[in-house]
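A note from the maintainers: we've had questions about how concatenated examples are separated. There is no special marker in the raw files; a new sequence line simply starts the next protein. For clarity in this README we add a label.
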Amino acid sequence: MSKLRTAARRLLTAGSAVAVIGAVTLGAGGVARASATGTTAIGTFDYDLRGAG
Protein backbone atom coordinates (compact mmCIF):
# COMPACT_ATOMS: atom_id res chain seq x y z
CA MET A 1 0.00 0.00 0.00
CA SER A 2 1.15 3.48 -0.64
CA LYS A 3 1.82 5.92 2.17
CA LEU A 4 -0.94 8.21 0.89
CA ARG A 5 -3.52 5.41 1.00
CA THR A 6 -2.42 4.43 4.53
CA ALA A 7 -2.62 8.04 5.72
CA ALA A 8 -6.07 8.47 4.15
CA ARG A 9 -7.31 5.28 5.78
CA ARG A 10 -6.03 6.39 9.21
CA LEU A 11 -7.61 9.81 8.79
CA LEU A 12 -10.93 8.24 7.81
CA THR A 13 -10.80 5.86 10.79
CA ALA A 14 -10.03 8.69 13.21
CA GLY A 15 -12.75 10.87 11.71
CA SER A 16 -15.28 8.05 11.99
CA ALA A 17 -14.37 7.49 15.63
CA VAL A 18 -14.81 11.19 16.41
CA ALA A 19 -18.18 11.22 14.61
CA VAL A 20 -19.44 8.19 16.54
CA ILE A 21 -18.31 9.59 19.88
CA GLY A 22 -19.94 12.93 19.08
CA ALA A 23 -23.22 11.29 18.06
CA VAL A 24 -23.33 9.20 21.23
CA THR A 25 -22.52 12.20 23.40
CA LEU A 26 -25.15 14.43 21.81
CA GLY A 27 -27.75 11.67 21.73
CA ALA A 28 -27.20 10.68 25.36
CA GLY A 29 -28.55 13.94 26.79
CA GLY A 30 -32.25 14.08 27.39
CA VAL A 31 -34.91 15.24 29.74
CA ALA A 32 -35.06 13.25 32.94
CA ARG A 33 -38.59 12.48 34.02
CA ALA A 34 -39.49 11.34 37.50
CA SER A 35 -42.56 11.11 39.66
CA ALA A 36 -43.21 10.19 43.24
CA THR A 37 -46.24 9.12 45.16
CA GLY A 38 -46.61 8.58 48.85
CA THR A 39 -48.72 9.06 51.92
CA THR A 40 -48.61 11.41 54.84
CA ALA A 41 -50.62 11.56 58.02
CA ILE A 42 -53.27 14.28 58.32
CA GLY A 43 -55.01 15.58 61.41
CA THR A 44 -58.41 14.31 62.54
CA PHE A 45 -61.58 15.87 61.21
CA ASP A 46 -65.32 15.62 61.63
CA TYR A 47 -67.78 15.09 58.79
CA ASP A 48 -71.54 15.42 59.10
CA LEU A 49 -73.96 14.05 56.52
CA ARG A 50 -77.60 14.96 57.13
CA GLY A 51 -77.10 15.19 60.85
CA ALA A 52 -75.18 11.95 61.27
CA GLY A 53 -71.56 12.23 62.38
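[label: protein 2]
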Amino acid sequence: MHIYQRIRDLREDADLTQKQIAEILNMHTTQYRRYECGESEVPLEIACKLANYYKVSLDYIAGRTNDKQGLTRSELDDDETSLIKQYKKLNEKNKGRLLERLAALSEI
Protein backbone atom coordinates (compact mmCIF):
# COMPACT_ATOMS: atom_id res chain seq x y z
CA MET A 1 0.00 0.00 0.00
CA HIS A 2 1.27 3.45 -0.88
CA ILE A 3 1.61 6.37 1.49
CA TYR A 4 -1.01 8.40 -0.39
CA GLN A 5 -3.59 5.63 0.13
CA ARG A 6 -2.81 5.47 3.86
CA ILE A 7 -3.11 9.20 4.45
CA ARG A 8 -6.39 9.32 2.54
CA ASP A 9 -7.77 6.37 4.50
CA LEU A 10 -6.71 7.96 7.80
CA ARG A 11 -8.36 11.24 6.85
CA GLU A 12 -11.57 9.53 5.77
CA ASP A 13 -11.63 7.38 8.91
CA ALA A 14 -11.42 10.60 10.94
CA ASP A 15 -14.30 12.09 8.89
CA LEU A 16 -12.17 15.06 7.85
CA THR A 17 -11.94 16.89 4.55
CA GLN A 18 -8.76 17.58 2.64
CA LYS A 19 -9.26 21.25 3.46
CA GLN A 20 -9.39 20.52 7.21
CA ILE A 21 -6.17 18.47 7.14
CA ALA A 22 -4.46 21.09 4.97
CA GLU A 23 -5.36 23.72 7.58
CA ILE A 24 -3.98 21.52 10.37
CA LEU A 25 -0.75 21.17 8.38
CA ASN A 26 -0.68 24.90 7.52
CA MET A 27 -0.63 24.32 3.78
CA HIS A 28 -2.80 24.98 0.77
CA THR A 29 -5.50 22.41 0.07
CA THR A 30 -4.16 21.87 -3.46
CA GLN A 31 -0.78 20.75 -2.13
CA TYR A 32 -2.37 18.31 0.31
CA ARG A 33 -4.60 16.94 -2.46
CA ARG A 34 -1.46 16.24 -4.50
CA TYR A 35 -0.09 14.13 -1.63
CA GLU A 36 -3.29 12.09 -1.41
CA CYS A 37 -3.44 11.56 -5.17
CA GLY A 38 0.18 10.50 -5.37
CA GLU A 39 1.06 13.47 -7.60
CA SER A 40 3.64 14.76 -5.09
CA GLU A 41 5.87 12.86 -2.70
CA VAL A 42 4.99 13.39 0.95
CA PRO A 43 7.95 14.99 2.75
CA LEU A 44 9.13 13.28 5.92
CA GLU A 45 8.21 16.34 7.98
CA ILE A 46 4.60 16.15 6.76
CA ALA A 47 4.46 12.37 7.28
CA CYS A 48 5.66 12.90 10.86
CA LYS A 49 3.00 15.55 11.47
CA LEU A 50 0.32 13.24 10.10
CA ALA A 51 1.56 10.33 12.21
CA ASN A 52 1.43 12.51 15.30
CA TYR A 53 -1.99 13.89 14.45
CA TYR A 54 -3.56 10.48 13.77
CA LYS A 55 -1.52 8.80 16.54
CA VAL A 56 -0.11 6.14 14.22
CA SER A 57 3.42 5.01 13.45
CA LEU A 58 5.42 6.20 10.47
CA ASP A 59 5.76 2.55 9.48
CA TYR A 60 1.98 2.38 9.20
CA ILE A 61 1.81 5.51 7.06
CA ALA A 62 4.62 4.18 4.86
CA GLY A 63 2.76 0.89 4.41
CA ARG A 64 5.47 -1.18 6.12
CA THR A 65 2.99 -2.57 8.65
CA ASN A 66 -0.76 -2.85 9.05
CA ASP A 67 -0.47 -2.22 12.78
CA LYS A 68 -1.41 1.43 13.26
CA GLN A 69 0.41 1.80 16.54
CA GLY A 70 3.44 -0.37 16.03
CA LEU A 71 5.63 -1.18 18.99
CA THR A 72 8.53 1.16 19.33
CA ARG A 73 11.22 1.30 21.97
CA SER A 74 10.04 4.75 23.00
CA GLU A 75 6.70 3.29 24.11
CA LEU A 76 8.34 0.87 26.54
CA ASP A 77 10.03 1.60 29.82
CA ASP A 78 13.31 -0.16 30.71
CA ASP A 79 11.60 -2.95 32.70
CA GLU A 80 9.25 -3.75 29.80
CA THR A 81 12.12 -3.79 27.34
CA SER A 82 14.08 -6.11 29.62
CA LEU A 83 11.12 -8.49 29.94
CA ILE A 84 10.74 -8.73 26.18
CA LYS A 85 14.44 -9.42 25.71
CA GLN A 86 14.34 -12.16 28.36
CA TYR A 87 11.21 -13.67 26.82
CA LYS A 88 12.86 -13.84 23.40
CA LYS A 89 15.74 -15.85 24.87
CA LEU A 90 13.42 -18.58 26.19
CA ASN A 91 12.77 -21.81 24.31
CA GLU A 92 9.21 -22.51 23.14
CA LYS A 93 8.39 -24.74 26.11
CA ASN A 94 9.42 -22.09 28.64
CA LYS A 95 7.62 -19.37 26.70
CA GLY A 96 4.46 -21.45 27.03
CA ARG A 97 5.02 -21.90 30.75
CA LEU A 98 5.54 -18.21 31.23
CA LEU A 99 2.39 -17.34 29.32
CA GLU A 100 0.39 -19.83 31.43
CA ARG A 101 1.68 -18.24 34.64
CA LEU A 102 0.96 -14.78 33.32
CA ALA A 103 -2.61 -15.81 32.51
CA ALA A 104 -3.01 -17.21 36.03
CA LEU A 105 -1.63 -14.02 37.58
CA SER A 106 -3.95 -11.91 35.44
CA GLU A 107 -6.98 -13.75 36.87
CA ILE A 108 -6.08 -12.86 40.46
